[in-house]
Structure formats: structure tokens, C-alpha cells
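Class, study these two lines:
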Amino acid sequence: MSDIYETNINDEVIETPVEESENEDSIYHYSYRKAQQEQQEQEETFPERTIYSPLPDPEELSEKKQKRESFLKKLARVAAYGLVFGLVAGAAFNGVSYGMRKAGFSSGGATQLAQTPSVKPSGGAAGDLTTVAESVLPSIVSISGIYQTTSNSFFFGETTQETEGSGSGIIIGKDKKYIYVATNNHVVESSKSLGVGFCDETNATAEIKGTDRDADLAVVQVPLSEVSDKTLAAIKIISLGDSDALKVGEQAIAIGNALGYGQSVTGGYISAVNREVELTDKTMTLIQTDAAINPGNSGGALLNSSGQLIGINTVKFSAAEVEGMGYAIPINTAYPIIKNLINEETIPESKQAYMGITGTDITQEMAAAYDMPKGIYIREIMSGSPAQKCGMEAGDVLVEFDGKAINNMESLQAMLSKKKAGTKAKVKVKRQTQTGEYKDKTLNITLGAKSQAMSR
């Protein structure tokens, strides 16, 4: 039997079969938004051209290396992600200490920030779900969006499709201009437009302030100009708990926009802490709970019995033989990243950096099958680009940028979006030798301006 894994973003469940193997563990992964119609498997095709590094005679290679050569030739014709610029919504994951932060933002106290209260909430005993729900619901919002996806096929060329999805968010802060809502990156990723629904059933348009794909976190901002005084009086900023102090067996309460029907409350217990969960593109250390987390709950709150935020719901495990395995990002991990996203300087698109490469992701499975490094296979380099000037070559595998590991084009784009043109950085590539082996090579790059690349 095939296990089914799913994430919690929209009002319908996408079920994705994952083949089981005697030698492989089960893998958790995302299945984002429900498409309006099923998409057929499609393959992008480019005119035949040789843009990869020459390889040794196949007869001198091992079976794996022969497979790799065939694979590299296919890479020269498959779809790439286009020239690497930067996406305004992206943000690089910062390796910082994730201790609890109680201080306000660096804006001199102008921003109200979710904090750990010095006393527990009053008005009812801890563990009373009714009291917790009444206290916390004003801090929870629904997030709805229109998402744009592009696909290519041999017969129909490039097609663009719009889909709808929904998720949840948590009011994490406020200043003189915006209300800040914390959610998952996969709730807002590829969004064309976003809307937020408050506890009084009013709605407002929203925009992405910042995202961290590696941590699956994002901040959405809502202009105060779009929120009435009545709504401002009804909503409130969440109170933080301490996820480091959690113990297995404690009560857990999940609140979110399940199935897109509006806010709902479910109760359960902390099943495990510091649980390593392997997703399709990363491994995360999460809180496990049996409180029901359903599609649409992504980005919603996991609370302790005092109504304090201890986690941000992100993913669930679903299979015919499994019940009650949901996961949340610990708030002690999430909070510093969210704080950083709110404080980050937004670089105008015209001043964002670009590198000037066309590349294809080399996943873990592809790397193992073709005896290649995991990273970005560089298919083509723009003439006169920063990548060409620093000595990068087609056929290199980009594995590190500015001291951080690179697994895919999307994470590289996110990093570049936070760099200004003219920034100097180090990049590490793995370059294939004539014997078929890959050797590390570190290059110094001066990033160009995205506006210059777009004008070509």
C-alpha cells in the first residue's frame, strides 16, 4: 500500500502517493494547493545545443557515470528556471540562536510585538478550551490567496494556471502602518494576491513582508488604512509561550482555518518534542501533536493550556493506518526568524542583485542516481554576467553562496533578493574533471543589478 502525505493549506486535500520500499523510510512532503483541474505530466523541450562541459569517453566510465552523462545531456534540453534574479518575497535562512526573545523590535519600541506574559491569562482555569478559545481567537486570521503556476509541455507550450487556496495566520505584531501576521511560507508561496480575514468576519488585502523558505515561515502585512477602528478594537496580538519548556503529555490546542470554513478549535496533547521530520526538500525539527491539524490549518496556532503560542502548525502525516500525527514549528525557533523578517530592509526590485545563470536543481535522488553533487546544475551563463566574470562555467554544480548551502534555484533566488547590486560574495561550485570526478572550486563574485539584466 502507498502512504499518503499532505499539507494543510487549502480547502481540499491533495493526496500524493509515495511508493514504499523495503530499504527506504517514509518521507513527508508538501502538496501545496489544490489545482482547479488535474495537470498532466509535462516535459519542457529546448532546441538541441551543447552547453555542458565535455565528458570522458563513456567506455571509460562506470555504469553510474554513464548514466550521469546521459542525464547531463537531457539537462541541456529540459526546462530551467531562467536567469537568476531575486524574488522580493524571498529571504535567506539565518543561522542564529533560537532562544526566546522578549524584547521589542529594533525600531525603538514603535512596533508592538508578541511577548511572553509575566502572568498567566485570567478568566478561567488553565486547560479550559472555552476560555483559551475566547482569549486567542482574536489573534488568529484566515489567509486566502490566488496562486499562479506555470507549466510547459511539448504540445501546448507554456501555460499559466490560477488556483485558489486558504490557510491560517497569527497576529504577531503591529506598528503605526501595519498589522503583521505570521504564517507558513507554503501558504503564501507563488501567490498573486492575498487576503486576510479577521475574527469579526471583516477582510482586508495583504502583501508579503518577507519569507524564509528553509524554515517554512513568512510574514504578511496588512495596512492599517484598510482596517476599521472597530476591527482594531476586536483583534489582539498573540501571547508567546516557551516551546523549550514543553513536556510530552501536556495539553495542546490547535486553532486555524480548517478546510477554509473559518476558525475551528481542536484539542489534544504534545506527543513528542524535537521530532525530526523529513520533507521532500529539507528536514525540520518540529513539535508533534495529536490535536487535529487539517488542510487549511497551516500557519495557525498551536497553544498550551494557558492560551500561549508554542508552535506554528505546518504539516501532517496522513495514511490509512495513521491517526493524529500533526506537526508545528516550535515558537522558540520561529520567533527570531519572524522578528528578523519584519525588520528586514526591503530592497527595491531595480536594485536587487542577479548572478546571470540558467540552472536546474539536482535533488538528492538525482544526485544518488547519477553520481553527482546535490545543488544547482549550471546549464548556461549569460555573456558578460557576474557569473561569467567570476569564472563560473556551464556544467558546474553550484553548492554554496555567501557561506550558505544551496539546494535549489528558489533558495538562491531568495538569497539574491536580499542582496544589493554591487555586493561581493563567495560562491562554491563543484567542477567535473576529465576523469568524471567533481572538485571544489571557490569563486569571488560581484553581483550585478537585476534592472540591467532585464534591459538586455
